[in-house]
Amino acid sequence: MASELSFPRQHARTLRFTLGAPRSFTVAPDGARIAFLRSGSGVDRVNQLWVLDLDGGTAAERVVADPGQLLDGAAEVLSAEERARRERSREGSGGIVGYATDQAVELAAFTLSGRLFAASLLTGVVTELDVPAPVADPRPSPDGSHIAYVAAGSLRVVASDGSDDRPVAEPDRGDVTWGLAEFVAAEEMGRHRGFWWSPDGDRIIAARVDNAPVQTWWIADPANPAKPPVKVRYPAAGTANAGVSLALVGLDGAHTEITWDRESFPYLARVHWSSDNPPILLVQARDQQSQQILSVDTTTAGVSVVLTEHDPSWLELFVGAPAWTPDGRLVHVADRGGARVLTIDDSPVTDSTLHVRAVLGVSGDGVLVSASAGEDASDPQIGEIHVYRVSAHGTERLSDHPGAHTAVASGPTMVLSSSTLNQHGDVVQVVHDGVQVIEIASVREQPVITARPELRLAGGRRIPCAVFLPTGFGSGAGRLPVLMDPYGGPSGQRVVASHNSHLTSQWLADQGFAVIVADGRGTPGRTPAWEKAVRNNLAQLPLDDQVDALHSLADDYPLDLDRVAIRGWSFGGYLAALAVLRRPDVFHAAIVGAPVTDQRLYDTHYKERYLGLPDEQPEVYAANSVVTDDGLSGAVEPHRPMMIVHGLADDNVVVAHSLRLSTALLGAGRPHEVLPLSGVTHMATQERVAENLLLMQVDFLRRSLGMTRTA
Questions:
Q1: pLDDT digits (tens, 9 = 90+) for 271-285
Q2: I need a labelling partner for 518 at 20 to 30 A (CA). Which of 134, 288, 577, 590 fits?
Q3: Looking at the domain covering 454-705, what would its CATH class be?
Q4: CA distance 498 to 496
């Protein structure tokens, strides 16, 4: 359906231009080397483990581990646990997709086809260790003497030379695992691991997960009826979660349970164990309106409360926090006085000119954070994310040009990854003592198109928007049909100052549309009040903001308001369905991708954060669902064309959401199209599927809006 040089083919083949770009950086404390992952080209899905040597005044890259050689050219075979881990982290590539190192960054551990490998980052020697397979999440001890890993639900430890392999925590029944994150932790909390080494490497904090209370769902493959369905434990809103507990585990297998008030705070959101300080835990109440930061006594395994927090809406979780400073002060991110600030020992050290997003690192020189412009910033900096160092000397911005930036640092050495609106992909710089040393090369493909977004604040609420017109479109050329292209919900900022983030929207514009991406209330990166406005109202407020953005931009752009379509995936798909059902006076067609249509069918930690418990607030769940047991909720005339797209193997937003929507539409006599994607999960990473899905969407939009087909 497309030529080799078409954007849809290129976009699919390159996994959205991520292949060939360096990623997953680990900086040695002495600054002598940096480990990272990169595939061999912009279309190569197999990641290799690389090292950049910086010692001796020169810089040189070398491959440490090549999956093709280690597997003797055989195709990678993934276990069910590894497939699930990659799905939770939205990992679409292959080869070495993750690794862990010792503290000195001299030893790395990783898996391939469920087999355990240890690599010396100094000599480049890679050794396969003979241990039970399939292996998940191997991690060296800080001193590099041992590697802990998970196999068959057991947490095991092996010496780095492959000797003395043994279990240190074993499940007592089939629904129990040690050392793995449960579904909601990996999917919603950003906690993808289930064990943590002590700084001395003599003990491990390990999570025991009991999935027995969680209801069983079955994911079938209708295209292959001979295959049995896959059993999954899915904690839908209002149902039981997995039971999660912790233990201090010795290398001899000795266990001491870490006890806290799990009845009041059942969610284990964060664990942090750094040198010279006790472990700290962040535990949340089920309603996520209360949480505690706990310090663990490693002698008794008892805990003490360091900080208790409350919020009438919910308490957000942040990457890298809480943590300790080297001298034992608590680093945290909190909402104070309408701003999101960095706190040290519960005292704010930033103000409302910054909106802190994550803690990137803590050292004696200060705290490294990523942040957007706050409500009181003199420059709104639409879509920009910068790296700052907060120290006793004040707050210093380390990223020096407009764009979206992040960093990894250790000691005086920092890897700064920067995207801008004017460059293809990230530029990755190594900075030492404030001076750029080298740029880590990327071999990603250059897109065949150039994105030209105009970033605007629209309407009275100053809604962040990106507007795209067809390449070469001139004034006086008439009005364009409009395509709203949002995510529009929590955790999904789309209006960012990054070129490659906007390529698909630009390509859609080049098909003859004015494309608008609007980040309304509920989306991150602005203020706590902006994010939390959607408490009990995930439907109407985000939809209102799409309408307001559209109408306010019509004064400045050639928008044909009689031909307006909307497309989206996941929350964006939900929003697209709402748009044509509740506001058909504004929206004339919708592409509804993997939508959450029945709020009771999505997971506990996400859905209850915004809507509470379904048995306590059934009216809230009904008002925010696209369908109810009685049919369509809030739908009005006229009927508008709708194409529903869903992966049949999706274990996050299960296909039942789309099937229930289709059933309700059929019962109400509303014509619609359904496009099932066989073998596709919540991510469409298959090249042909991803390519043709874009082309079929454009065909649907043209038909639905009465546009003339072009060659």
A1: 999 998 999 999 999
A2: 288
A3: alpha beta
A4: 5
